[in-house]
Amino acid sequence: MWRRGVAVILLGLALVERATAVSFEEERELGRQFALEARAQLPLISDPDVVGYVEGVGQRVARMLEGSFFEYHFFVVRDAGINAFAVPGGYVYVHSGLLGRVANEDELAAVLAHEIGHVHAHHLARQMEATKLLNYATLVGLLASVVQPAVGALATAANTATQLSYQRQFEQEADYLGVRYIQAAGYDPHGVLDFFKTLADDQRSVPTAAAPYLRSHPVTDERLNHLEAVLRTQQWADHPRRPKSLALRRAQAVARIRSEPPADVVAAYRSAVAAAPNDPETRFLFGVVCMEAGEFEAARGALLAAGTAGVTAAGREMGRLALRTREPQAARAALRDAVAADPSDAAAWSELGKACELLGDTAAALDAYRRAVSIAPDLETTQYDLGNLAGRSGSEADGFFHLAAAARLRGEYGSALSQYTRAAGLLPAGDPRADEAREWTKTLSQFLHVRIPEIPARGAANGQGTPQSDSPGRP
Ligand code: ZN
Fold first, then answer.
1. Ligand 1 midpoint to CA 114 (Å)
2. Measured in angstroms, how far is the CA atom of residue 222 from the centroid of ligand 1?
3. What is the dihedral of CA 220, 181, 230, 101, to 10 degrees?
4. Does the pLDDT of residue 464 top 50, yes or no?
5. Rounded distance from Cα 162 to ligand 1 centre (Å)
6. What is the pLDDT at residue 264?
7. Where do the DSSP E strands lie in 362-468?
8. At CB < 8 A and 24+ separation, what contacts does 304-311 make?
9. If you measure from the C-alpha of residue 85 to the centroid of ligand 1, how many angstroms do you get, rounded to a whole number?
10. Complete DSSP assignment for 175-198
C-alpha cells in the first residue's frame, strides 16, 4: 500500500515537469492580477483576528513545502457559503461559511493544505493547458463561477465560465499532498476525513443546501476510501477530534458577525450562554459579538464576567471596547498590556495607535500603527490612519506610501497608482519602500491597462500639503 502512495507522488512530479509550457513566473503574474481583481470585486474580511488566524494556519502548512515556487497568501471571503478555492501563484481563499463549519484547527489546516496542494502541483495550469484555456479572462470567469452569489459584478462572466473543478486525478493528488503537509506541520491528518464526513452528513440531512465546496469536491465513497487508505498506509493512528481553540472560536464569531445580520449572531451567542452558563469562554465570545454589533453595555458585562472567571483575553477586548466608548485613556492602558503580552497582536497595535492619536501622542500613535501594518500589511484602515497621520506630521513620502496601500486595499487602483507614483518620487533611494512603490506602479498600470507613469524627481511633489487631498471617497 505504501508503494501506491509513492506512485502517486512520482506521477505528480512527472506531471509537474511537463507543466513547463506555462512558466512559474506566468502563473505568479496571473495570480497577482487575479488577486487585484478579487480584491476589487469580492467582499473580503479584514479583521486581523480572522485573517491573521487563517493566515497563521495556512503559513504553518505552506512552510512544509519543499522547493516552493510561490509565496502563499490567504484571504477570507465574506460569504456564508461553505467554500474554498485557490488560484495559481499561491492565492488561497476561504469563505467565512467554511471557517464557521470546521470543528478544530486540524480541519481548517486540511482544507488549506488541499488547496495548497493544487497550487504547488500546478493543477490548474496543467489542466487548462490541455484545453489551452489558461489566460486571465478564463481565470476571472472561474472566479465568477466560484464566488456566486457572493459577488454580482463578476456574475456576468459566469456564462462562459468553466467550473473550477479539477480532474479526478488532481483531486486525489491534492488529497494525498494535503494530508502529507498537515502531518508534517503537526496537525492531525484525520482532520480532512472528519471535515468531509461533516459535509457529507450536512448534505444527507439537507440535500438541497449542498455546500458549493461539495460541488467542486464531491465526497464520493471512492474519495473517502482513497483518503482512508492513505491515512492507513501511513499508519497514522486515529484519535479523538481535538477541541476547538479559543482563537478559532473567536475567528468564527467575528467572521460570522461580518457575514450575517449582527442581531441574529448576537441572539445565537446569547442562546449559547444560556445553554452553558458556567462556560466563561462562551460568555467571552458573547461579549465580543456584542461589541462588534455595537451593544456596548452587554459587551462590558459579558467581558467583565469572562475576565473574572479567568479568560485572560478579556482584558484586551476591554481595551478595544473602551476605544469604542470613547475612553482613550482606559483603552491605551489595556491595549499596552495586550501588546506587551503578545507583540504580534496586530489588532491591538492598531487600536493602541488610535487611542494614542486621540490622546494627542503622535509619536506613539505612529509607532503603534507601523507595528500593526508590519504584522498585518492588509489592514486597510490602519494603513489609512498611518498615511494620514504621517502626512499631517510632515512626512509626505510616508503619507503617500501608506495612503496608496490603503487605496489599493480598497480596490481603488487609479488612486493607489497616483499615490504610489508620488511616494516613489519622494522616498529616499535605498529605502525598500521606494522599490515597493515602483513595483506597485508597474503592477497597477498593467492591471489598469495604462502606461507606467514616470516617477517624478525627488522633491517635485513637495508643497502639496497633506496627502489626504488625494484620497477620494473617505470622510
Ligand atoms: Zn480540490
1. 6
2. 15
3. -40
4. no
5. 15
6. 96
7. none
8. 305/280, 306/280, 306/281, 309/280, 309/283, 310/280, 311/246, 311/280, 311/281, 311/283, 311/284
9. 8
10. HHHHHHHHHHTTS-TTHHHHHHHH
Q: Ligand 1 centre and the CA of 177: distance in Å?
A: 11
Percent of the chain with pLDDT over 90: 59
CA pair distance 345, 335, nearest whole angstrom: 10
CA distance 117 to 128: 17
Distance from residue 167's CA to the centre of ligand 1 (Å): 9
pLDDT in tens, 286-345: 999 999 999 999 999 999 999 999 999 999 999 999 999 999 999 999 999 999 999 999
Give the three-class secondary structure for 134. Answer: coil
Distance in Å, CA 178 to ligand 1 centroid:
10
| Strand partners for 92 | 74, 86
Ligand 1 centroid vs 166 CA: distance in angstroms?
A: 7
* Interval between CA 221 and ligand 1 midpoint (Å): 16
> What gap in Å lies between CA 48 and CA 55, rounded to an integer?
9
> β-strand 91-95 against 84-87: which pairing, if any?
antiparallel
What cell was used for 138? 478564463
**Cβ pair 83, 142 in contact under 8 A:** no
**C-alpha cell, 90:** 499561491
Ligand 1 centroid to Cα of residue 15, in Å, is: 17
DSSP annotation of 424 reads H
CA atoms of 450 and 238, how far apart (whole Å): 56
Phi-psi region of 468 (alpha: psi -120 to 50; beta: other; left: phi over 0): alpha
pLDDT exceeds 60 at position 97: yes
Ranked by mean pLDDT, the top range of 23-32, 84-93, 257-266 is: 257-266
Q: What is the pTM of this model?
A: 0.85
Residue 79 Cα to ligand 1 middle (Å): 19
Is the separation of the CB atoms in 75 and 92 below 8 Å?
yes
DSSP per-residue codes, 460-473: TTTT---GGGG-TT
Report which of residues 122 and 361 the model is more confident about. 361
Q: What is the CA radius of gyration of the chain?
A: 23
Compute the average pLDDT of residues 5-18. Answer: 37
C-alpha of residue 128 to centroid of ligand 1, in Å: 15
Residue 231: count of CB within 10 angstroms of its CB? 18
Query: Which of 394, 451, 383, 384 lies closest to 426 in space, CA to CA?
Result: 394
- Cell numbers given for 460: 517635485
User: 174 CA to middle of ligand 1, Å?
Assistant: 6
Alpha-carbon distance of 25 to 296, in angstroms, equals 49
